[in-house]
Design a protein that fits this description.
By secondary structure, the chain is mostly helical. The chain has one domain. Helix content is 69%, strand content 0%. The mean pLDDT is 79.
């Protein structure tokens, strides 16, 4: 999710120990975990409320679907995939034959 490697994680842990101190580090980590849990429950409640207010047809709504590019791709991309212009052009090329008598 954040693309943090092992070396970066170790550096963050060392930095946290230096800034906070080893005696307060467990307390700070516990408070940070509580904040993350509260934010996660808040976002899940907001998503559920959004689904409820949008009504039927949006039961499978994901928050990432609201990004403009993904929204357009999801709703308009299916139409564009069905209308494959390259295949249509190839079919026209194959069917278009020049009559040698006209040359």
């Amino acid at each position: 999710m954040f693309n943090i490697g092992a070396g970066e994680f170790i550096m963050l842990a060392v930095l946290a120990m230096i800034l906070v101190g080893p005696d307060r580090l467990p307390q700070v980590a516990s408070e940070a975990a509580k904040i993350v849990r509260k934010l996660r429950s808040l976002s899940q409640a907001a998503t559920a409320e959004l689904r409820e207010n949008l009504g039927p047809g949006y039961e499978d709504l994901q928050v990432t679907d609201l990004h403009p590019k993904k929204f357009i791709k999801k709703h308009i991309g299916d139409v564009l995939d069905d209308a494959n212009p390259i295949a249509e052009i190839e079919a026209i090329k194959k069917s278009a034959k020049i009559d040698p008598d006209l040359l």
